[in-house]
Design a protein that fits this description.
The protein folds into two domains: 134 residues, Cobalamin-binding domain (Rossmann fold, 3-Layer(aba) Sandwich), CATH 3.40.50.280; 144 residues, Rossmann fold (3-Layer(aba) Sandwich). The protein is an alpha/beta fold. The chain has eleven helices and eleven strands. The two termini are 26 Å apart. α8 links the parallel β9 and β10. Helices cover 39% and strands 18% of the residues.
Length: 299
């Protein structure tokens, strides 16, 4: 059992043990609503670690949700959060949603969130820890992108870097736009954007960056496997551990905690790519220590 899982389990047990609301005669009812039945959402639901006095039901597809008796609804993914918010007045914990989603889109009522994206300070600290000499950070994005570029630019500047952004004009200009941003940058920072980064484009994006000896920093394990230098991300299991603690806190205290960025995260490195690019990487644990020294705990 991992340290993160043990920690979340201890929080859960303590919260439930001291809860003034524990009801021996009726279990707490938790309804988990997934955006769909894809693997990350399944992994999240399976990893929820709740005590025996919790009755947990999982609804694999958000489209099938209808208001039903539950003490708390846990949504998994953005689509589930948006659909459930329109159909229920019950307390909602929205997991795995972007932090840039305006709160008013989920209605101003009893709702809290666990964001999928990392705190800006942690993201930038990771870049600085992995590539301390690479200060010109290039980003290619589409107009639909919701990433908090203003906050990222501010934090990057605070830590000694410069953000160089290029708006994708259209699919036909993808590689011209990519070459433009690569010509000014010494690291390419990938942000979630299915228009720019998808199964049809990722291989050529990686090849273009390699030709210029520019590393690509991804945001998930598949990117590292595909050829990104590194990535920092939270797994569904790590997010589920955090959600489990928030759920128990809700039933112990009678209110949901404030929305949170991921507390736990994973660092993945591609040493083969590092050797090819002539980059010396520290170990993941050393990088983690540097990240936490710079950014501190999540808020």
């Amino acid at each position: 059992m991992s340290l993160n899982t043990k920690f979340a389990g201890c929080v859960l047990l303590l919260a439930c043990w001291f809860s003034p609301h524990v009801r021996a005669e009726a279990p707490f009812r938790v309804l988990v609503v997934q955006s769909d039945n894809n693997l990350p959402y399944q992994s999240f639901s399976k990893a929820l670690n709740l005590p025996v006095q919790f009755l947990v039901e999982v609804l694999p597809r958000a489209e099938d949700f209808a208001a039903q008796p539950a003490d708390l609804v846990v949504t998994v993914g953005l689509r589930a959060a948006e659909l459930v918010a329109k159909k229920t007045a019950q307390p909602v914990l929205a997991a795995m949603i972007p932090s840039t989603l305006p709160a008013k889109q989920l209605r101003s009522r009893m709702i809290s969130a666990i964001y999928l994206d990392q705190p800006r300070a942690r993201q930038v600290a990771f870049l600085r820890a992995v590539l301390p000499e690479h200060t010109r950070v290039g980003v290619l994005y589409s107009v639909e992108n919701r990433f908090d570029f203003a906050g990222f630019r501010t934090e990057l500047s605070r830590q000694g870097g410069v953000l160089l952004m290029r708006n994708l004009h259209g699919e036909a200009t993808l590689f011209d736009d990519l070459e433009a941003v690569l010509s000014e940058s010494d690291v390419l920072f990938a942000v979630p954007d299915s228009v720019v980064y998808n199964g049809n484009t990722i291989r050529n994006i990686l090849l273009s960056s390699y030709r210029r000896s520019i590393p690509l920093v991804g945001f998930s394990q598949p990117y590292v496997k595909a050829g990104a230098l590194c990535a920092l991300f939270s797994t569904p299991e790590q997010l589920a551990g955090q959600a489990s603690a928030m759920i128990s806190s809700f039933f112990a205290l009678g209110k949901l905690p404030e929305s949170q960025y991921p507390l736990f995260y994973t660092i993945s490195l591609n040493q083969e790519v590092a050797r090819t690019l002539g980059i010396k990487l520290n170990t993941a644990e050393m990088i983690r220590l540097q990240v936490e020294k710079i950014s501190g705990p999540a808020r």
